[in-house]
Amino acid sequence: MRKRAIISLAVVGVCLLAGYAAYRVVVEKDKGTSAELAMMLKVAAERDEAEREAEGPSTELAKALEGAQVSLATGLSASAREGQPLSGTFALEDETLQLSVYTMRGNAFAEVIVDSSTGQIAKVKPVTSGEELTVAKMQAAAMARAKQSLRAVVDKAVTVNQGFRAVSVTPTLTEGHPVAEVTLVKDDTVKTVTERLDE
Fold it and tell me: How confident is residue 5, by pLDDT bands cut at 50, 70 and 90?
């Protein structure tokens, strides 16, 4: 009888240990799942914010552009001293209008800040890591197949759309073809036109 009781206690002990082990597995799995979910939500939130920003320039930016003495096309030409322009955009940095152009020289990438009042290069920042480098490489891949410069595409977009001002230009690969998306603004109207770069 005593022997049977000992065996029963042993079985119960094994079951408890197995149950605890299973519980730990579930808890650890839940922790991992929660961490993954949190990361996914963070990425989604950042993507949504980027998409909202990509919808068009803000009212503050549109107003700031009215006083800009330098066009996007001029900024692209000025930055060419630091390498091939890969993209360009006007933005507000600490409430100050800034023209940022990404360039490539050899295998090196940089962000060139052009003074929106004088057209002179104000700062050159090497791009060596992170999301900026990834984006720059994608833009470089598109420009490697281009037959036109970004300046030429911007000039064409502004000429066709009289009264509009170019805010940004970004190259991408679409179905294997390099295209440039040019964002234009006129008063409260914002539009984006797409131009092939390999024609």
Answer: very low
